[in-house]
Each structure stands twice: as structure tokens, then as C-alpha cells.
Amino acid sequence: MRRLAEGLDRARRDRSRTGKEEAIAGALAAIAADDDDPALAIAARIATGRMLPVGDGRSLGVGWSSMLDVARTATGHDDAILSACARKTGELAEAFALLLLGVEGATARPGLRLGELAELADRLAAAPGRADKRALLDAAFARATPLEAKYLTKALGGGMRIGAQEGVVQGAIARAFDVPPERLHQAAALVTDLGDLAVMARRGRLDEARLVVGRPVAFMLATPIETIATAIDPAAHAMEDKIDGVRAQAHRTAGGEVTLFARGLDRVTEAFPEITEALRRVAGPFVLEGEIVAVGPEGRPRPFQSLQPRLKKTTPSPADLAEARVALVAFDLLADEAGSLVALPWRERRARLEAFAGALGGGDGVVVHTATPVPTEAPLQAALDGAFDAARARGHEGLVLKRVDAPYDAGKRGQAWIKVKKANATLDVVIVAAEEGHGRRAGVLSDYTFAVWRGDDLVPVGKAYSGLTDDEIDRLTRQLEASTIEQRGGLRRVRPEIVLEVAFDGVQRSARHAGGFALRFPRIARIRDDKQPGDADDVAAVEALFEAQVASGHREQGAGGGARGRGRGAKAAGAKKSASRKVKKQLSLFGDDD
Fold it and tell me: Is the pLDDT of residue 199 over 90?
């Protein structure tokens, strides 16, 4: 663990992406030279803030309060000192390490072996209660050096916060084992656990990366029509309604085990037992992809919010099951008894999906989505307008166009799938700061500053305070209070963990926001519990929406701040992509004094 912690600390101090990759690569290469594959695997996972494999399905069950208890015992300081130090340093892990330096003999401790951490993760996931988990943690931190304690705390909390997101760790693996980055990224789309990926890279086995039933693969993504680089050929595309639900992969092994993976690659199997039961009745191994939706009495889709009680519980109650009847609307077949189908063109996968539909037997729980040709007898825009309105009338979000000759390009957002968007667009954004509301909402965190990605940085593009229910605001308040890393007055800087879907009336240039744009009249459409921060949109998507408004006459290039604003906003919007996700700097809403 010592070498990994030192490498992660060097990555934290280095501001460049290359430097971060090299620091982590050096640690992984040294670990691979001296340790076995399990040690390398847990090291790669820890570098991304995980201790269990992707798609594992288990939970460590270690929260903020548990770690505060452990830090109190290990350092001898009370909650007031720990909390004050955490506010000063930015997070509990940093405070824990700093205070541990003052404990006699802490720097001379033997430290932790990576193999012990792999065992610790398994035992924490299996421990039945808080007291059992606490005993395991106390024993581990009693042997950890201050630097090891810092990075173990970060891993247990689910995030390193050193500017090394998953792409940086992938780059580090490529450097550590002298693998072409593109080759590694291709393998990573099918082997989504970086621990397994690191072992394959070490062994020179990346060419063996395959879709394996029971193990999630990265989801193929659609591009908004505003950012499509070439003209659309209607004859080369099929058309589906864009569904407002939880994107999911359904895996059934040859032995009959059914697993549901959401877009974040976490298991949601227990949340949807009716889907699981329906799929268990179908023979043979397969991987279906689709959207889980709540359906009304007549089969009409219900709003996404009706699914949220399911997503927030390990096992839904009978009341939850009765409240929202659900179905998996399958739109792709990624594997069947013949093996992986991802290399086949969409039209062939679709034919197999339609044949597969007969095995479902027409029961509840799983249905096959409808796909139709794009009309060619009318101008494309008129055809899409009519189809869009019809999809909306059916209760769906809009349209998705899919090239019939395209393979399933796991993990990529290319031109093969196109999302048709219209006015009142939405973006997925990440909350980076929060403030208390006023009047009826005094005392709760109801005003949210949100950001999108520019390269590897999060840059704010607006603030929203409407659209959520009181219950949703109360829930977010608890989450944001727990994830606060700095507070001045009523403004809290928070860890970038919560994704919102934000609707707005337009986009304008802005000198006020670091993203160079501001969303006009933003309002929260929903909380995206099914998405991870890395799934949020980027500045390119915001700029594309702005340019589309300019082209249609709904916005002017200079809108949003006069001559001075135009210059500063344009500079911010066109700034060179950073080489690392300098999240702390980008989220410093209080100036540069940290």
C-alpha cells in the first residue's frame, strides 16, 4: 500500500494529466514487479476510489459517520477538532492523515499490504453490522501509516479527489505496461473493472477482452442532433422513441442467474424483481439492453420520478412494488447463445432481438421496443417533427435515430446513434456548490450551482433552485451536508457526486461563469440517480446548443454581457482543454487562497 499511496500523492500534487498518469503508472509497475495479480487489481481499483470490482453488487457499508468514529479513535481528537481540520484541509481524509502525524509512532508503523486491503474489502462487504465493520476498520487503521490512512479513507469514501478520474488511471495502466492507449481503451469498453484490466495489460492479454455474460460492458451513447458533423441519410437509419427511464443491461447466464446493471455499472437487480423473474423464465444465456420504465394501468409510461423509490432501497417493499409497476423495454441484444453480438450491425442485432421476443411469451416485465424506418417521402425535418410529436404523445422524451449498419460501439458517443432534441433542451450537470434557500426553504440546501465538463475539469454554467419537491430537497440537503468540503457563510463547496438533469429556455454567453456560458431560466427536471458525475455533459454540448440557437435566429453571438462580456466569455468558452481534472481548483468558489 505504501508505494500506491506515494504514487497517488505524487499524482495529487502534479497539475498535468501526463504527470498524474506517470505517477500512478510508476506505482502500478512497481507493484506488478513484486506482487501478485490480486495486489495489482486492488491497487488499480483504489486509484479510482473503489475497493470492490465494478458490477460486484456488494456494498462496503462504510459512511461518513463510521469514518469519523474511526478517525476519532485513531487520532485521539474529538469531533470538533476533526471537523474543523476537515473544513480547513478540504476533506476528512486529509484531516485524518494530518492529525495522525501527531500520534507517536504513527510514521514508523509497518503499514498495510495490498492483499490485506483486498481481504478487508471482502470482509467489510460481508460484515453484518456496524460494530463488526468498525472493528475491522480500527484494526486496519491501527497499522496504517498517515499517508496510507489518507488514501484508504478516500477509497472507502468512494473517491480519490486527486484529479485522476478513470481515464487518467486507464492512461496510467497503458504507461505502466507499455500498451498503446487506444488498444487499452478498446479493451476497457468490454472489461469495465480496471483491476481486471490492469491484470490483463500486465499479462499481455488485452486482445482477449470480450463481452462476458454476467459482467457489464460500457454503454453505447447517443449524440444530440445539434452536434452531428454530417448530413443524415434517412434510408441508412431506423427510428425509436427515446424512453425516459433507467438505462440498463440485463444479463442471464447459462446457469439461470439474472443480473441488472444500471448505467453507472452498479447492480440494481433487487430493485426490480418482476423484471428479474420474467428474464429467469427465458432459456439460455443472453444480454439485453434497454430502459426500465414505470408503466401505468394502460401500459403508458410514467415519469422517471416514480422509479426513484426503487433505486434508493436495497430491496423494495411491497408498497414500492405496488406503487410503480415496471418493465424493461429492450432495444438491443448484445449477446445470445451464439456469443457476443456487439460486432454485428444494428439490423442484424435487431433481427435477433425480434426473434428473441417470441421467447418472452408476451408476459409482464419485459417488452421489445418498437423500431421503424425513418420516413423518406417527406423532407427530413418535417418527418422528424411529426415523429417527435407522436413520440411525445406516447409519453416518451423524443427520438433516437440509429444507423442500421453500425456495430454496438461500447463506451463511445459517436455518430451512429442520434438523439433528436427540440426547444426546452436539457443537460446533465453536476452539483458543485449549494446554498440555503429563503423563506419557506430557509434551513435547507435548495440553491445549487452546477457544472459541466471541459476536458477533465468541471466548470460552472449556472444555478438552479426550482423543480424539486420538498422531499427531494430534504434528501439532497442530507447528501450535500455529508459531502461538504468547504463552507463559508451559507455557501458550501461540495464533492462533485450528484447529477441533475436541468431544463432551460436557452443558452447565452457569460463572463460570470467559468464555462463561458449560462443557461437561461434553468430549472431542475429530475435528479439523475442512475448517472455518475462522469456521465454529465460537457461544454461542447452547451456550445452546440448555443450555436444552434444562433443559426435559428433565437440568439446572437454577442448576447450575454456586452463587449466586455463577449470577450471574456468567448475566451472562457474557447479555452484550451486542461490536461487534468483540477476539480479542487475549478470548484474553489471562494477565491484562490486554498
Answer: yes
